[in-house]
């Protein structure tokens, strides 16, 4: 024991203390109860979840948290309590205080604003506020991909149905939380983005996608967030998984999900937090005692139990019994303990916990945060269609005309003053709640008649337009006589919907009113119709019969105020639809033309570096080499290579929206990079750059071929082979023939200290009479360059010339057969070579990397495979001699993959390079 826990406080030698740190618990009430006091004092619970039921105001929250921390301190806890909170913004905020805590748009609303930097600022502001009242762990960001976006309960809590967009905004939020000093927790692993509510025999939703399907979409944001190294915790969901390779009833209780998928495959080393084990299905099927043990066995470090004291005691006794029964080893307990304590050390201390900044800080920052809130909401409002030009209403309507507002009955959002005034439960539904409804409202506060939620919207709208406004609600009873009478009176009707895809009466009501308005217009009456979706944008996004359609992404007071400003023309909305909905409008947007300018280093270098970092944050870990690319990676200044680079930029802010690098040598025009800001995709920026690049290349004197992907510089080898986002289709639509790719790869030996050459390889090479030597400088290079000219592309020839000029840091290994005939060559780079600046995969921030670049072997010779393996072996030996920790073998052709994998190299990235004849380039790319 002493050896195992030598780095821990001696107090944790007592397993009761260690077990207490593995539980996160909550309770109902706004004061410290005897039960929660007992859990902290006697059972050493180290983490607390606060919900809306605990919190009345910022001041009360600060006092409550301080009391909890003081209690832990007095009880001898070595480190402060983790204080966790759901504070996602939009409709999910546990803490609301209109005087001190600002409201911001939902995750999807922030994505609609189209600015990841704004998402970062919102997250940092949110975390700063909750940190001031003592919270040190935010249960966020939401990293779910809405794979089946229209019918999922997460709705606007998720960013979109685009994995890369979810990654970008999730990582921006995570960085904001971290920079405010608060720990982060990604959720809901492996995904709540495509749940099936019909196929489970248990009272839980299930995931039916295969692991392969999940890996290509749902897991991408989790993988990307983990790869940043900044994700402290992961919330593992309680959903089931049913597919041919996995059959799991509760994800958080499965070692296949937590240990195998999350830890081993995705490489997560932080704290795994289980879904609340008080869920009815788990209690009935397994029981909390066994469930708690199963969660820890699966790999969870913190087990969540939300509020029931008797259940919480049951969980504690379950863990103790698990140790006694030897289901849980002490090593397993202490592994989790160390993870939890490490996270605590990163986000809290006794000085911070016992002395929160409190109201004094909140008062100081409130004005700037309120201004940020206003901007975020104004930027998020999205007008999807306004075919009849009804906006703003003060232009399309006379002041004396009547405006009718029709709103549904909804559950008020926690972040509203109205919610605070509601004290009792009331459910207006005529039918029993569905399984879907039970799931979406689990562990939430009251489900209320929301008749008053939109009352202030009506008042604000009437005041803003200085005209008469009629307002009434509608229900599942449909269009009633009162609605018909009001519709006949009004000149313009605004219908509000809130998740009409799941509340089908709203869709039916809206369609009925739309039909009535059409019929009345046919008789010559003025009957304008505006539909506003105040939650999911999917309600009528694809229904072109709704001519004016607006999305607000939540219906908090701030969102409704921004809606009023939009309707009355006080702001011009610039929001856009998330994910594939944005892409569905590409036909219209493809008519956009962007000014393309020549790249100027002094003006554009900083913007290009920012663009590259944005791309790195949004790309998969497999393409993390982009993190090491800089603006200098593209400018070769080689007298034998013509280079022309282009940008689409914002001339006011100097931000680059897109960049394209082109090169020309010996009759071949090459696109060596084509990048577009992830937040500006599907706006024709890439098409504008591509069109300009091709026009310049095909007009070069003597141009014969056009190539997509380049070896030197080696930033963009071509289209990633595992690309699933339509990139190949994009290039195909842009005139490329993609039938005959050259497949290339980057391979690696991640740890040279443990690598050994395959047994017998050296003897086989010697028997084949293959010899090797290493040369430096151009003086001895004629035979090498002759070999390259015969077997490789022109840019590879220039790559070798450049390497040979770096006498101190680069060299070329030659493989020779009997008679001193060269049958293969490869470039060797020591760490820090100039060549590495043009090949980002050879760079690393945390270890020395040795490069083995562009092996070129005459494959017609019988010794080709042995020559290739020998060249790689010589390269590895040279890398080791230069103290490299890793070897990267760059630009490997497909025929070499098998031989090198057999040596212990691992596939890092693979690409497809394409070459077309100039004569075959489609002329349509120069038109449109």
Automatic annotation (TrEMBL):
Matches recorded under Gene3D superfamilies: Glycoside hydrolase family 3 C-terminal domain (3.40.50.1700), Glycoside hydrolase, family 3, N-terminal domain (3.20.20.300)
Residue ranges of domain Glycoside hydrolase family 3 N-terminal in the record: 16-342
Highest taxon, organism lineage: Eukaryota
Molecular function per GO: hydrolase activity, hydrolyzing O-glycosyl compounds
Keyword terms, alphabetized: Glycoprotein, Glycosidase, Hydrolase
One Pfam entry name: Glyco_hydro_3
Gene Ontology terms describing biological process: carbohydrate metabolic process; peptidoglycan turnover
Keyword Glycoprotein found: yes
Family statement drawn from the similarity comment of this UniProt entry: Belongs to the glycosyl hydrolase 3 family.
The protein, known as: Beta-hexosaminidase
Organism the protein comes from: Podospora fimiseda
Species classification: Eukaryota, Fungi, Dikarya, Ascomycota, Pezizomycotina
């Amino acid at each position: 024991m002493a050896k195992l826990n030598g780095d821990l406080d001696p107090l944790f030698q007592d397993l009761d203390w260690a077990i207490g740190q593995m539980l996160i618990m909550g309770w109902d009430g706004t004061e410290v109860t005897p039960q929660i006091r007992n859990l902290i004092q006697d059972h050493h619970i180290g983490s607390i979840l606060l919900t809306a039921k605990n919190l009345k105001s910022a001041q009360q929250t600060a006092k409550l948290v301080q009391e909890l921390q003081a209690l832990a301190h007095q009880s001898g806890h070595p480190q402060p309590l983790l204080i966790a909170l759901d504070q996602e913004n939009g409709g999910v905020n546990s803490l609301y205080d209109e005087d001190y805590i600002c409201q911001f748009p939902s995750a999807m609303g922030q994505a609609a604003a189209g600015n990841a930097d704004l998402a970062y600022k919102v997250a940092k502001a949110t975390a700063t506020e909750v940190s001031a009242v003592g919270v040190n762990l935010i249960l966020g960001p939401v990293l779910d991909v809405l794979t089946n976006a229209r019918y999922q309960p997460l709705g606007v809590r998720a960013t979109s149905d685009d994995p890369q967009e979810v990654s970008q905004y999730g990582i921006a939020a995570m960085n904001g939380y971290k920079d405010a000093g608060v720990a982060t927790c990604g959720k809901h692993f492996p995904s709540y983005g495509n749940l099936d509510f019909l196929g489970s025999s248990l009272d839980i939703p299930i995931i039916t996608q295969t692991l392969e399907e999940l890996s290509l979409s749902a897991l991408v944001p989790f993988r990307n967030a983990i790869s940043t190294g900044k994700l402290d915790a992961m919330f593992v969901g309680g959903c089931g998984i049913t597919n041919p390779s996995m059959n799991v009833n509760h994800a958080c209780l499965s070692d296949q999900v937590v240990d195998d998928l999350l830890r081993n495959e995705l490489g997560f080393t932080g704290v795994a937090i289980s879904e609340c084990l008080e869920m009815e299905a788990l209690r009935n099927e397994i029981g909390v005692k066994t469930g708690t043990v199963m969660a820890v066995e699966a790999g969870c470090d913190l087990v969540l139990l939300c509020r029931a004291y008797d259940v919480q005691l049951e969980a504690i006794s379950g863990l103790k019994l698990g140790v006694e029964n030897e289901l849980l080893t002490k090593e397993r307990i202490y592994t989790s303990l160390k993870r939890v304590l490490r996270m605590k050390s990163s986000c809290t201390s006794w000085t911070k916990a016992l002395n929160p900044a409190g109201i004094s800080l909140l008062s100081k920052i409130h004005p700037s945060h309120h201004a940020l809130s206003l901007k975020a909401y104004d930027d998020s409002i999205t007008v999807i269609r306004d075919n009849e030009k009804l906006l703003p209403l003060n232009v399309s309507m006379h002041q004396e005309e009547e405006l009718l507002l029709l709103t549904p009955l909804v559950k008020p959002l926690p972040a509203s003053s109205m919610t605070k005034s509601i004290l009792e439960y009331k459910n207006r539904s005529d039918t029993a709640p569905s399984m879907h409804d039970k799931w979406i409202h689990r562990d939430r506060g009251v489900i209320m008649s929301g008749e008053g939620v939109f009352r202030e919207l009506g008042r604000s709208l009437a005041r803003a337009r200085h005209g008469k406004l009629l307002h009434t609600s509608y229900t599942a009873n449909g269009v009633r006589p009162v609605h018909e009478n009001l519709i006949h009176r009004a000149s313009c009707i605004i219908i509000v919907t809130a998740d009409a895809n799941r509340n089908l009466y709203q869709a039916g009501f809206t369609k009925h009113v739309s039909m009535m308005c059409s019929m009345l217009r046919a008789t010559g009456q003025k009957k304008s119709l505006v539909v506003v979706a105040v939650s999911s944008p999917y309600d009528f996004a694809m229904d072109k019969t709704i001519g004016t359609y607006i999305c607000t992404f939540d219906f908090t007071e701030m969102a409704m105020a921004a809606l009023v400003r939009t309707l009355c023309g006080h702001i011009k909305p610039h929001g856009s639809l998330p994910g594939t909905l944005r892409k569905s409008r590409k036909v219209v947007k493809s008519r956009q033309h962007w000014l393309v300018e020549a790249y100027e280093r002094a003006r554009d270098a900083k913007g290009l570096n920012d663009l590259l970092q944005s791309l790195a944050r949004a790309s998969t870990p497999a393409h993390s080499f982009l993190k090491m690319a800089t603006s200098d990676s593209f400018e070769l200044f080689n007298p034998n290579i013509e280079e022309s680079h282009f940008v689409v930029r914002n001339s006011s802010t100097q931000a680059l929206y897109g960049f394209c690098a082109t090169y020309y040598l010996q009759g071949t025009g090459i696109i060596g990079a084509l990048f577009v800001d992830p937040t500006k995709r599907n706006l024709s920026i890439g098409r504008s750059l591509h069109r300009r690049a091709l026009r310049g290349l095909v007009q070069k004197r003597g141009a014969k071929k056009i190539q997509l992907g380049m070896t030197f510089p080696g930033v963009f080898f071509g289209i990633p082979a595992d690309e699933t986002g339509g990139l190949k289709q994009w290039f195909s639509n842009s005139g490329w023939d993609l039938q005959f790719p050259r497949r290339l790869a980057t391979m690696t030996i991640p740890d040279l200290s443990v690598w050994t050459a395959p047994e017998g390889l050296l003897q086989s090479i010697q028997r084949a009479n293959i010899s090797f030597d290493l040369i430096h400088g151009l003086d001895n290079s004629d035979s090498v360059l002759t070999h390259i000219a015969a077997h490789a592309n022109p840019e590879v020839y220039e790559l070798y010339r450049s390497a040979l000029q770096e006498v101190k840091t680069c060299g070329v290994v030659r493989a020779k057969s009997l008679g001193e005939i060269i049958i293969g060559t490869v470039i060797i780079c020591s760490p820090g070579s100039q060549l590495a600046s043009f090949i980002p995969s050879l760079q690393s921030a945390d270890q020395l990397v040795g490069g083995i670049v562009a092996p070129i072997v005459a494959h017609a010779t019988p010794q080709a495979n042995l020559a290739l393996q020998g060249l790689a072996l010589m390269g590895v030996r040279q890398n080791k001699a230069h103290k490299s920790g890793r070897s990267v073998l760059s630009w490997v052709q497909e025929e070499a993959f098998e031989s090198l994998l057999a040596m212990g190299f691992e596939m890092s990235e693979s690409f497809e390079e394409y070459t077309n004849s100039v004569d075959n380039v489609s002329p349509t790319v120069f038109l449109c």
